[in-house]
């Protein structure tokens, strides 16, 4: 890849990563999508519930790979953990967040494309920078938006949309961020 292109790709991915880490309110995953067109960011989407709806992290908490909930639905005493002064109870069903999320949370890519649609702005020929590889449904939405490129840093367990996008002529780039970024820092310093 052209080094100049790779430097910009890394920059926008780092931006997406920072948006995700600092602003996502999902207890499970922090995902962001930044859509860049003509070298400008035109939309930013973060995974989460619609505004004015209750946030995922007000209900769920994930600690060391285990999901807890702010409401105890168990008759029997269950494992608890304290987070920011609040008691959370271990979820009996560890799939509960996934099921709730499907009903309530909008994926970052859909949020980013939705904001563009609200402003009647086109994503045609733009690049989507996403922290996680897009899922099937988001891949279809990105195809429909006529986006040219998708750059992602982390492989997502439900990320089976990559081949769909490639079939539609979208350039899909996997850029593992940490290695790339730290490699650049080392090279910049001439170490
Ligand atoms: Zn969530
Ligand atoms: Zn998705």
From TrEMBL:
Catalytic machinery residues: 109 (proton donor)
| PANTHER family cross-referenced by the UniProt entry | DEOXYCYTIDYLATE DEAMINASE, DEOXYCYTIDYLATE DEAMINASE-RELATED
Which SUPFAM superfamilies does the record match to this protein? Cytidine deaminase-like (SSF53927)
Gene Ontology cellular component? cytoplasm
Is the keyword Metal-binding in the record?
A: yes
Kindly list the cofactors needed. Answer: Zn(2+)
The yes or no answer to whether the keyword Metal-binding is present is yes
- Annotated GO biological process: pyrimidine nucleotide metabolic process
Q: What is this protein called?
A: dCMP deaminase
Report domain CMP/dCMP-type deaminase positions: 7-191
Origin species, per record, is Exiguobacterium oxidotolerans
- Amino-acid positions noted as binding Zn(2+) in the UniProt annotation, renumbered to this chain: 107, 135, 138
This protein's source sits in the domain of life called Bacteria
Query: GO: which molecular function terms?
Result: dCMP deaminase activity; zinc ion binding
């Amino acid at each position: 890849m052209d080094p100049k292109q790779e430097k910009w790709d890394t920059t926008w991915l780092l931006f997406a990563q920072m948006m995700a880490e600092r602003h996502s309110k999902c207890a499970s995953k922090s995902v962001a999508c930044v859509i860049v067109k003509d070298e400008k960011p035109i939309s930013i989407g973060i995974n989460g519930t619609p505004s004015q709806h209750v946030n995922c992290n007000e209900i769920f908490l994930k600690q060391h790979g285990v999901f807890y909930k702010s409401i105890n639905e168990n008759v029997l005493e269950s494992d608890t953990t304290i987070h920011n002064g609040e008691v959370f109870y271990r979820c009996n069903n560890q799939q509960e967040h996934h099921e709730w999320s499907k009903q309530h949370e909008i994926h970052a890519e859909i949020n980013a494309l939705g904001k563009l649609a609200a402003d009647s702005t086109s994503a045609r020929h733009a690049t989507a920078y996403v922290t996680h590889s897009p899922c099937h449904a988001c891949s279809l939405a990105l195809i429909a938006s006529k986006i040219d490129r998708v750059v992602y840093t982390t492989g997502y367990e439900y990320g089976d949309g990559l081949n769909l996008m490639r079939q539609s002529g979208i350039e899909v780039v996997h850029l593992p961020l940490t290695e790339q970024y730290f490699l650049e820092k080392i090279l910049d310093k001439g170490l």
